[in-house]
Design a protein that fits this description.
The complex is a heterotrimer of chains A (281), B (362) and C (304).
Chain A: H1 2-11, H2 26-50, H3 67-74, H4 76-109, E1 110-111, H5 115-127, H6 131-143, H7 150-174, H8 178-186, H9 191-220, H10 223-228, H11 235-245, H12 249-271, H13 273-277
Chain B: H1 2-8, E1 10-21, E2 24-35, E3 39-43, H2 50-58, E4 65-70, E5 73-74, E6 85-88, H3 100-110, H4 115-128, H5 144-156, E7 162-166, H6 174-191, E8 194-199, H7 202-208, E9 211-216, E10 219-225, H8 226-231, H9 236-241, E11 246-256, E12 259-264, E13 267-272, E14 282-287, E15 293-294, H10 296-299, E16 303-315, E17 318-325, E18 330-336, E19 348-353, E20 358-361
Parallel strand pairs in B: 3-8, 3-9, 6-7, 7-8
Antiparallel strand pairs in B: 1-2, 1-4, 4-5, 9-10, 11-12, 11-14, 12-13, 14-20, 15-19, 16-17, 16-19, 17-18
Helix pairs in contact in B: 3-4, 3-5, 4-5
Chain C: E1 4-5, H1 21-57, H2 73-80, H3 82-115, H4 120-128, H5 135-146, H6 151-158, H7 172-182, H8 184-197, H9 200-208, H10 213-224, H11 226-242, H12 245-250, H13 258-267, H14 272-299
Classes of the chains: A mainly alpha (281), B alpha+beta (362), C mainly alpha (304).
């Protein structure tokens, strides 16, 4: 008993603080465990069922099979949807990075009347992202006779995702030590050279983090894509269609593909984690 | 002809520079000439405007009014990359994504020097600042003192006519700071480049400089050599800011031949009056504590009065007596540790000083 | 003072170069050029579409049927028919309950994350992994889990707790679950940030004054993390209010939320003007909520 208590004190030296609830109790650990399970269970289930040999979603899984993946691989619509998602995400990322970086510089480095207003305006798309925005874009493209499709989707995604890039780059830019640029100028570098040699390399992590975030959000987007993609599909939209009208574990295979792509980006993003955290603060 | 020769003596000339930040006047009619090859310090309390002035000379700020000449060329509206000055910043501003070599070489790279020349000059200057062998380290791997040297090396490798320093030693601890001061002074002598050094630490300025410019609230109070500033302050602020002094306020009763009689009721003092003083002016008498004599020594002085010892403060090298005079003012008198005095708190004592040790200030 | 470039990213007061008229003009030109893409984009693809939607909501019928006239009838329908009022209320009720549930269940988790000093970042990233997937998948996952022969039912059956499978899917419970699951990060992250900002010295002071752990928690930690609580709650509320997938995939025909009503109007229905009106109302609600969040969080800030 003594030994266990002693070990508990040593192990939880950092956690054993008198002024707050003890984080090391069994109850807490149980709660955390359940929560983690709860969070991961759905996704795990989706992937699991993709390997199900039975057509129906019964539990337990009847057998292990890669049949659905084989079907998915030969599914032209699925491949097309996947490709569309990728193209749209890449184009959106490029646009968002460009516009976002410029916007961020304008907001952080200059002082002008209406800067506060513009700061809020930039955040509005993030707030109203959802069905409302999709509808407004749908009607807008209708009125100006822009055909629905990949192009329209790219335009839509960019509108609602570039503020994310702005926020992330803002965070880095606001803390940027301007005397570094002054030092470079002082040593003889003209403004363009200063930007290329000093500014750009130092804000690159934020730019990359923003780009990764935008790519993921664009790839995963459903609601904008649904209304703007017209006759073709993006992967989430295709999956939605499958769910609605044709439920087999083939859906899971497609879903697993989607998860796979996302996971790659999560791993990448976790390297740039610090930049992303600034969104929430 | 003489005028032309005189012009060549100055590397930096500041003419009637007045600068506003918004509605606030930050610099007021600054006129300054810095000689070629001298170590010039701009000394003043925080917020006095010295950094602003430095940045105006460096080209990071364009003055609202007035002009700046660097080596006789008008430069006040030229950006920093068109001036032959370099700056060592307060927080050094070393490029974190470049190693020591690249940091130091940056100015030369921008000037498109051939790489052999760059390599040679960087090696030379690193040796000068005693950082040979550190080429591949990154700024965050260096100590404070080493970072200082890199910043210094970076600024001097491009061979500017003027190097500007914005309180660079502030973040170092005292011992290191004193060491760096000596090194900087020696370096300046070796290079012969004009240094303009901004600081609020008077000991720093007094140690390193050839001449000092004292700035307070945007005004240049006095410019002179170290001795001039210390021994012959021209304004009350300079007397008070540099070293320690006693200030006795009073009114000029009469003035004759640069000697004024001052009444600080109920006492009367006589003092040298350099400058424009007339009867009736409210002035300040300044006398340094080490010039104030006590007891017997005071009896031998032409200027004398009586007081009571309030307190004695021992500070190792000397003892400071706080003596309360008849007019209510307290004088500080410093006595070296070696000298013996028999006074204790509460004693009546004579205080006095030589006429030339006290002077009037506005 | 016009547009002056800052030599500092922050508001360092001392250094502001005063430029000649010509140079100030050049800086203005630079600024306009830099801001133009973003501002123009927002104008054309955000502001104008919103106005288009507003105009559409004032139409009496779909344009391709007959020339429409302007009318407020759509808004009247939206506000005065019991149908839509009920949908709004249902949506509000669901959102509120989801917000409350999330607040209560996520607070201990956020607390743990904020106070744990080792491996904070890793655990956070780990927790966020499932939420990087598309919303579609998350709703789909719950469809699988809650189905008649889904995992939950089977598990409970195996444990002999049920005689026949529960109707878990296609009702408001499933929708709540879907919403709850989807917006966990929206609640955790602001809470985590806010709790983390509470100065531990204050907690120690509280303990020093004789409060036990729970009193400290209730009287010090929670009030001081109020900005985070408000942000998180507002975010979750707004997000679940406009969520489309959960009600569409997990809800039954009588569980429509306002967003799924709008969704159906534009996919299956034909009364686009009405849909636009509902959409615009939703937009106004969102803006109001956002404004409220900003006001409250700036008021409730305890600066030390």
């Amino acid at each position: 008993m003594k030994h266990r208590e002693a070990r508990k004190v040593v192990n939880s030296r950092q956690e054993f603080r008198q002024y707050m609830p003890d984080l090391n109790t069994l109850a807490y650990k149980l709660y955390m465990g359940c929560f983690l399970l709860f969070i991961f269970a759905p996704i795990v289930v989706v992937v699991l069922y993709a390997f199900n040999s039975s057509r129906y979603f019964v539990w337990p899984i009847k057998g292990f099979s890669l049949e659905w993946f084989r079907q998915a691989w030969h599914n032209r619509l699925l491949i097309e949807a996947f490709t569309n998602s990728a193209i749209i995400a890449l184009a959106t990322t490029a646009l968002c990075t460009a516009i976002g970086t410029l916007m961020s510089f304008g907001l952080v480095r200059f002082r002008f009347r209406g800067r506060g207003f513009l700061n809020i305006l930039v955040l509005l798309p993030v707030v109203t992202y959802g069905i409302v925005s999709s509808i407004s874009l749908l009607l807008f493209f209708d009125v100006v006779h822009i055909q629905r499709g990949i192009g329209a989707t790219i335009l839509g995604h960019t509108t609602f995702l570039f503020p994310f890039a702005v926020i992330i780059i803002n965070g880095r830019l606001a803390n940027f030590d301007v005397s570094l640029e002054e030092a470079a100028m002082d040593l003889g570098a003209r403004p363009v050279r200063v930007f290329v040699d000093i500014t750009l390399p130092l804000i690159m992590p934020a730019i990359v983090a923003g780009a990764l975030l935008v790519f993921t959000l664009s790839f995963d987007d459903f609601i904008l894509s649904f209304f703007l993609i017209g006759n073709t599909n993006t992967l989430p939209v295709y999956i939605f269609g499958l769910i609605r009208y044709f439920m087999t574990p083939a859906v899971n295979a497609a879903a697993t593909a989607l998860i796979g792509v996302t996971m790659i980006f999560v791993v990448l993003i976790s390297f740039f984690f610090r930049e992303i955290r600034t969104i929430w603060e | 002809m003489e005028e032309a020769i005189a012009q060549d003596r100055y590397d930096v000339e500041v003419r009637n520079v007045t600068h506003f930040y918004g509605r606030t006047k930050v610099l007021d009619e600054i006129n300054l000439k810095v000689r070629k090859g001298e170590f010039f310090s701009l000394l003043g309390p925080s917020g006095a405007g010295k950094t602003t002035l430095l940045r105006i000379i460096g080209g990071f700020v364009f003055p609202t009014r007035g002009s700046v000449y660097i080596q006789n060329e008008r430069m006040d509206h030229r950006p920093p990359y068109q001036r032959n000055t370099t700056m060592v910043f307060q927080h050094l501003a070393l490029f974190p994504h470049m190693n020591v070599f690249d940091n130091v070489a940056y100015g030369l790279k921008v000037r498109r020097r051939p790489w052999q020349e760059i390599a040679r000059r960087v090696a030379e200057v690193l040796e000068l600042v005693k950082l040979t062998g550190f080429e591949n380290r990154y700024p965050k791997q260096l100590s404070g003192g080493q970072q200082q040297r890199v910043a210094l090396a970076r600024s001097i490798v491009v061979e500017p006519s003027v190097v500007l320093f914005d309180e660079p030693l502030g973040s170092l601890d005292l011992k290191l700071r004193r060491e760096m001061e000596v090194e900087l002074k020696n370096l300046q002598r070796v290079l012969g480049t004009t240094f303009i050094y901004v600081t609020h630490d008077q000991e720093e300025a007094l140690t390193m400089s050839d001449r000092i410019g004292v700035i307070n609230e945007g005004r240049l109070e006095q410019v002179g050599t170290v001795e001039e500033i210390y021994e012959k302050p021209r304004t009350r602020f300079v007397a008070d800011f540099i070293g320690d002094t006693n200030l006795i306020e009073g009114k000029v009763v009469s003035i004759q031949d640069q000697v004024a009689t001052l009444r600080a009721a109920p006492l009367t003092f006589v003092a040298e009056a350099r400058g424009d003083f007339r009867e009736g002016y409210l002035v300040c008498l300044s006398v340094r504590p080490e010039k104030v004599r006590l007891g017997e020594a005071a009896e031998a002085c032409p200027v004398r009065c009586q007081g009571i010892v309030q307190d004695i403060i021992y500070t190792g090298a000397k003892r400071r007596y706080l003596v309360r005079l008849e007019n209510g003012r307290t004088l500080k008198a410093d006595v070296l540790a070696g000298e013996a005095t028999a006074f204790t708190v509460g004693d009546e004592v004579s205080v006095g000083w030589q006429g030339q040790d006290a002077y009037l200030l506005r | 003072m016009g547009r002056t470039p800052l030599t500092s990213g922050t508001e360092r007061a001392v250094e502001r170069p005063c430029l000649s008229k010509k140079q100030e003009g050049r800086e203005n030109y630079k600024l306009t050029l830099i801001l133009l893409p973003g501002v123009a984009w927002l104008f054309f693809f955000y502001l104008i579409p919103t106005l288009v939607m507003f105009r559409y909501s004032l139409l009496s019928n779909m344009p391709h049927i007959a020339p429409p006239t302007f009318t407020l009838s759509n808004y009247l329908d939206a506000f005065c028919t019991t149908l839509y009022a009920r949908v709004f209320l249902r949506t509000a009720r669901l959102s509120t309950s989801v917000t409350a549930m999330l607040l209560l269940s996520c607070f201990p988790l956020a607390y743990y994350l904020a106070k744990k000093t080792r491996r904070q970042k890793e655990i956070l990233v780990l927790l966020m992994i499932p939420f990087w997937t598309s919303q579609v998948l998350r709703a789909f996952a719950w469809m699988i889990l809650l189905g008649r022969s889904g995992m939950v039912n089977v598990l409970l059956g195996r444990l002999y707790l049920l005689t026949e499978p529960l109707r878990l899917l296609y009702n408001w419970r499933a929708v709540t679950m879907g919403l709850f699951y989807s917006y966990i990060p929206y609640m955790i992250l602001p809470l985590y940030a806010a709790i983390g900002r509470v100065d531990e010295a204050l907690l120690e002071a509280s303990a020093g004054l004789g409060a036990n752990r729970w009193q400290t928690l209730w009287n010090v930690t929670i009030p001081l993390s109020l900005p985070g609580i408000v942000s998180g709650a507002a975010l979750v509320f707004v997000a679940s209010f406009t969520d489309v997938l959960s009600p569409t995939l997990l809800g039954g025909p009588s569980d429509e939320m306002i967003s799924s009503v709008i969704f159906n109007t534009f996919t299956m229905g034909s009364n686009w003007p009405l849909g636009s009106a509902l959409s615009f109302i939703l937009f106004a609600v969102l803006l109001l909520a956002a404004a409220l969040i900003m006001v409250i969080s700036s008021q409730v800030r305890y600066e030390t």
